[in-house]
Design brief:
The protein is 66% helix and 5% strand. The chain has 370 residues and is mainly α. It folds into 2 domains: 5-73, no CATH class; 80-363, no CATH class. The longest helix has 32 residues, at 185-216.
């Protein structure tokens, strides 16, 4: 469109662009240092639509550049109240998926709301952002331990995990391994290191918070294993609640969020069916395969980014929380929930997800890199 030729190298923290017209040796090279992006899938969808409009000739390049600038400065699609509700729904839905104790779910919901308030402070106190992944589980660990010491029978480590699950970089770990498997080594390796460091920050903050709280309060022995037992049909409402909350957290417009809910439901249903016929690793493979095919087909029909639906589906399958449980077990010597997976099982789940997505792209290639 501009009469230029170019070559680009993109990593999570840098953009390297080389431009030339006729002589490839006569290049203009530009480096840009960037911060790793968040998961604003709604904005990605909108910017991709602008690029499609420019390519199709419906929008001039100048108009498109102006629209991208406007979108980069525009507020999110949801108010802070709706976002607060989404954090509560995410924390409580995750708790309901893995726990039969309603007190765990209630505690996770309350602490998720407090963590959201802490995250909101980061907008006004930018110096808190580098330590937010430590401070959030630290405060959650103190408050959860205090509640348990007061006689509220909750699983403290599990409640802490549920309240900060939105910080768990399970998706980032999966994307990193997927990029490495695709031989995008620089981007994949840097993303993997960033995700592992974030996970270590979270587990450090959680363990520190619980340890500090136990200096002043002691947790009495549990009188029973399950208090306020939840009904057996809780699984699907929890899955849909988690998927719905993530749609808001990812800033996806509500009119388009139904596609994401479908991706999450498909991922969970196929993975559960696959696990019943094979094992957990096989279930994760067929779940990732189904989500990849669904997302690529959606992208081909609507010309939207396939990564939007892939992210919403895979995030329900990624074992980021399992990795957190493994690290907690290594540090404390105790399992967060009975039957927590070992390192080898969590690693195989990651590999199964990556291989499922690779097979999906081979069987039904996406029509764009996004």
């Amino acid at each position: 469109m501009l009469g230029l030729k170019g070559s680009f190298l993109v990593t999570p923290t840098t953009l390297t662009c080389a431009f030339w017209q006729d002589d490839e040796m006569d290049q203009f090279i530009h480096f840009e240092r960037t911060e790793p992006a968040d998961h604003d899938l709604g904005r990605l969808w909108e910017i991709d639509a602008v690029v499609e409009g420019i390519e199709a000739g419906r929008t001039s390049f100048a108009q498109g550049a102006s629209e991208v600038e406007r979108l980069s400065l525009a507020p999110g699609h949801y108010s802070w109240v709706v976002n607060a509700v989404s954090w509560v729904v995410i924390g409580s839905s995750f708790g309901a998926l893995l726990s039969n104790n309603a007190l765990d779910v209630i505690a996770a919901a309350v602490l998720s709301l407090l963590i959201f308030a802490l995250a909101g402070c980061g907008k006004y106190l930018p110096r808190l952002n580098p330590i937010q992944a430590i401070l959030a589980p630290f405060l959650s660990g103190i408050l959860a331990t205090c509640a348990a010491a007061a006689g509220i029978e909750i699983n403290v480590p599990f409640v802490v995990l549920s309240s900060v699950v939105i910080y768990i970089p399970g998706l980032a770990l999966t994307v990193a391994l997927s990029e490495i498997a695709s031989r995008d080594l620089i981007s994949g390796t840097s993303r993997l290191v960033d995700a592992v460091m974030l996970l270590l920050k979270i587990i450090f903050g959680a363990v520190l918070g619980m340890s500090v709280a136990r200096m002043w309060w002691s947790i009495p022995p549990s009188a029973s294993d399950v208090i306020l037992a939840m009904p057996a049909w809780k699984t699907w409402p929890a899955v849909m609640g988690l998927s719905f909350g993530l749609s808001i957290a990812f800033n996806i417009p509500w009119r388009k969020s139904l596609w994401g809910l479908g991706s999450g439901a498909l991922a969970f249903a196929v993975a559960a069916a696959g696990e019943s016929h094979f094992d957990m690793v096989g279930g994760m493979f067929v779940g990732a395969l189904a989500v990849g095919l669904y997302s690529n087909l959606f992208a081909r029909v609507t010309k939207a980014p396939a990564s939007v639906l892939v992210t919403q589906g895979i995030v329900l399958l990624v074992p980021g929380s399992k990795t957190y449980m493994i690290l907690n077990s290594w540090v404390s010597g105790q399992d967060i929930v009975p039957g927590s997976p070992g390192f080898s099982q969590a690693l195989m789940i990651f590999v199964a997800l990556v291989v499922g997505l690779l097979f999906a792209n081979a069987l039904l290639p996406p029509n764009k890199s996004l």
